[in-house]
Structure formats: C-alpha cells, structure tokens
Amino acid sequence: MSYIKVCGITNKHDLNFLIDTEIDAVGFNLYSESKRFIDLPFAQIMSEILPRNIEVFLIFVNHEKEFVTKCLKEIPRAIPQFHGDESKRYCESFGKDYVKAIRIKEDTDLEKINKDYKNAKMLIFDSYDTGAYGGTGKTFDLNLLKGNVKIPFLTAGGINESNFKEALKIENCIGVDFCSSVEEVPGVKDHNKVQNLIEKVRSFHV
C-alpha cells in the first residue's frame, strides 16, 4: 500500500480531519520563511493530538543543529525531514531515522544522492525553485527519477490526480507527499480535495 504524507499542516481543524482519513504521516513546517510555518510549541501540541499510527515529520531548512536537537527532544516521536542543503554528516548526526528532501533538477547527481543518503529512512523528491524550499505546487519531470533512485522515496511537487499514478509506477517510489495541490490557500487544506486524492491513491495498485 502506498505511503501518504500530507504536509504543511498549520491548524487543528485540518489535523482533526486528517486523523479520520487513511494517511500515514503529516508534516509540520518549522522553517520561518515558509507560508506554512508553525512554531515549536504549537507543533508539540499538534503532535500530541495525533494517534501513534500517524507519523510526525518536522521540516527543517538549514537550521542550526541546536534547534533541531531541541525540537527532537520536545517531540521524541518526530522524524526530522531536512529540506535544505544539509550534508549527510549533518543529517546523521542526530542519531535518528531521518528523511532527506531533494529539490531535483536536470543536473542533480542522483548517483551521489544514492551514496550520500543511503542510510535515510526515505527520500522526498520535490521541484526545484530558486526562491522556495518546497510547497510551490510546481511539478517536475518524473522521467528524471526513473531507474535512477536506489533508496525508497516519496514524490512531492504538485502531486495531484493527474500525475500520482505516474509517480507511483517509478521503481522505489513508495508513496506521495502532497501539500499545495490540496489547499484552499497556503496552510489551509481543502478537505474534499484531500479526501478525493487519498481515495484515488488508496484504490490505485501498481
């Protein structure tokens, strides 16, 4: 069964809705420049609401190590998702399962990615944008991934009804991560869109 992560949750209304859906994980964005930023105390409150069967991802973008350490101490169940330019050494320094997000473009060295992040829990491939670290809603050429990724990964970057099937057919793609494609405005989910996409992903078999 495909892994489904819904990212950029900013409010309890959306979170409570998601609890009753068939998802595997939610993402809380701790990057202050993001349109979907929430602070650590609120992320902690939101994490405590979630049942244990839904995983918690905390999104970091080039944060100081001390801040990440503090967050992981405050929310021990959380999985750090490094969405910036973090090195292998940095990602592995916290002694926890971690997820590395890669903003992919045509010249991305996937062979190096496979080598550097082979110990990651999973990768997330997102669209490259010079002005933003994720959540842009922009798609990328999925052909860039085909046959080139050796680590289990989620596909992000404008995942919607029209492209999720193509993503899930790619070798080692274990699921999808959606955010802006199921929003009313940044940080507020459209529940009908979320439910519809979840049902379509759940009913699709590669």
Structure commentary:
This protein has helices at residues 12-19, 40-49, 65-74, 88-92, 110-116, 164-168, 191-203, and strands spanning 3-7, 25-29, 55-60, 79-82, 99-104, 122-127, 153-155, 173-178, 183-185, 188-189. The protein is α/β, with parallel strands linked by helices. It has a single domain (3-203), classed as Alpha-Beta Barrel (TIM Barrel). The chain is globular. The termini are close together.
Whole-number mean pLDDT: 94
CATH architecture: Alpha-Beta Barrel
Radius of gyration from CA coordinates: 16 Å
Q: What's the helix count?
A: 7
Flag low-confidence runs. none
CATH superfamily: Aldolase class I
What is the makeup of the main sheet?
8 strands, parallel, barrel
Helix coverage percent: 25-40%
Shape: globular
- Total count of domains: 1
Q: How far apart are the termini?
A: 10 Å
Give the topology string: H per helix, E per strand. Answer: EHEHEHEHEHEEHEEEH
What is the CATH domain class? Alpha Beta
